[in-house]
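Q: Convert this sequence to structure tokens.
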Amino acid sequence: MKRRSSWQIQKAVVFALLMREIKTRFGGNLAGVVWVLGAPLLQLAVLVWINTMLRGRLTRGSFEFPLFLLIGMVPYQLFKGLWVQVMNSVSANRGLFGFKQVKPIDTMVARTVLETCIDSLVLVVAMAVLGRIGYAPVVPLDAFAVMACILLLVLLGMGLGVLSAVIVEVLPRWQLFVQLLAMPLYLLSGIIFSLHGFPQEMVSLLLWNPVLHLVELCRAAWLPGYSLLPGVNWTLPLAWIIVVWTLALNLYWLRRRKLVMS
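A:
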């Protein structure tokens, strides 16, 4: 019998973990699938309703507010979901580390794949629904730039998740800190309102947030004529990703045995 390579073993492990995560996430029934896909649409509907009640309009500048909101909301949820899910992947799968083939990084990769697939599907379904009821444009102006933004958000979210998974084993309260940080980061990334009218001094501080850059770049790549917030670029998110992954991989390598034995 031909012996499998390390790469083949890891692929098989990640696939098995992915199947396990799917069963856990969806509960093995159709209701779980409907909830995972329907929850973001319900959140979108609630935010649109609140906006129309308070402001009396469905537009944000020259763009329809539901499109403006969705193009920011789903990529942010992907980023946040990856950060939290990857951070919790070690503790949630600790019982599997008794099998020598299963490593902590495998659980992180499996959750990253699942979270990315779910949120990508949510974005496609939500855009199809908005297109069906008459909103446009539901097709991005520059699909490659949108995919680049999503890829960078995946790398940033997973990198922070790996880093946090190591930190939380030493500082358990780090998990609470990440959860508390999610809401202010949501507001300061320009998800539900434009930051164009903010004072320049405040904008200069907010531009240290890499998620803000990627959300703005995603909207500019999707909506024709969208005006980027001054100072937004690709360089800062890339710098964040390099720094985060450098720290994450080094700390993971130093603590990899501790993660298995904790």
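Residues 6-261 form one domain.
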